[in-house]
Amino acid sequence: MRKTLLPYPLGDIVFAGTVSDGSIIMRSVSQQRPYQQVGIKIRQLILETPYRSGQRLPPEREIADMLDVSRTVVREALIMLEIEGLIEVRRGAGIYVVEHKNPLRIEEVNTHFCNDAGPFEQLQARQLLESNIAEFAALQATREDIVKMRQALLLEERELASCSLENSESGDMHFHLAIAEATHNSMLVELFRQSWQWRENNPMWIQLHSHLGDTLYRKAWLIDHRQILAALIKKDARAAKLAMWQHLENVKQRLLEFSNVDDLDFDGYLFDSWPLAKTDG
Q1: In what residue span(s) does the HTH gntR-type domain sit (predicted)?
Q2: Per-residue b or e along 73-94, where b marks 16 or more CB atoms closer than 10 Å to that residue's CB
């Protein structure tokens, strides 16, 4: 089925083009993740439409409506294009085309991103995995495990006090790792390590995280960690699970706020998110 995008005045640039299910565009992205497919479509429209460096792209809401996808998928697509050097995201100001001499070809995009999940998809997976890890750890943790968690929090506090973003997440990682190790289940520990390694190596996560230039979010997450630890010390499995779930819900919310460039009140998600109340019972 063919979908024709007629000339459409979007922001400062008029997008025009045709996307067909049988075209080379669709063949090249059919096995890719939604944000990659959308990123390729946006990229193709930009490259095929006359523009000048510094021109503003349409708001993400209009792009989402035009391509019939969620706005969070559009956000992840824009992060991909920012990594490529095709656009610049200015928080509160919009999305702008930048001068680029050697953009990636469409057929190179799949190799460049290795079909990695987007950052919000990964956070949802962590939420499901780590909330259950915390629940189990509450029942299994020893005194030595609790000591390791406390040491990780002390490291996190020192990193926060130093006000340095360099190596600022060692305490964060060690705290979550200590909880996984407190399950005394090597498979769960390995699953956690793999998810964290993805986080450290994924260019989209790195790009999104680069926009977090202050320590406010780290202070909020440290408070979350203390609440998780309090539940683990009490061996309250239900409270530990809910505290971890809510912590990662808070992380998603904060990253969405920082990634959004044209609507500071938008709180939509790529996947449905369940607040604390929905996990109760």
Answers
A1: 32-100
A2: bbbbbbbbbbbbebbbbeeeeb
Burial of 143 (0-12, 13-18, 19+ CB in 10 A): exposed
Look up residue 234 and give its amino acid: K
Q: Give the tokens for residue 194.
A: 């793999």
Q: What is the CATH number of the domain that holds 92?
A: 1.10.10.10
| Same domain? 123 vs 62 | no
Owning domain of residue 255: 119-279
Full-prediction pTM beyond 0.85?
no
Of 81, 98, 113, at which residue does a domain stop?
113
Report the domain count for the chain.
2
DSSP string, 2-68: EEEEEEEEETTEEEEEEEETTSHHHHHHTTS-HHHHHHHHHHHHHHHS---TTPBPPPHHHHHHHHT
Among 88, 113, 138, give the residue marking a domain's end. 113
CA distance 179 to 17: 51
Give exposure, 100-109, as e/b (b: 16+ Cβ within 10 Å). eeeebebeeb
Residues 157 and 98 in one domain: no
Range in 6-15, 61-70, 205-214, 263-272 with the lowest mean pLDDT = 6-15
Q: pLDDT tens digits for 70-127?
A: 887 888 888 888 877 788 877 667 788 887 655 544 444 444 444 467 777 888 899 9
pLDDT of residue 217: 75
Instruction: Answer yes or no: do 82 and 188 share one domain.
Output: no
CA distance 156 to 149: 11
- DSSP symbol at 105: P
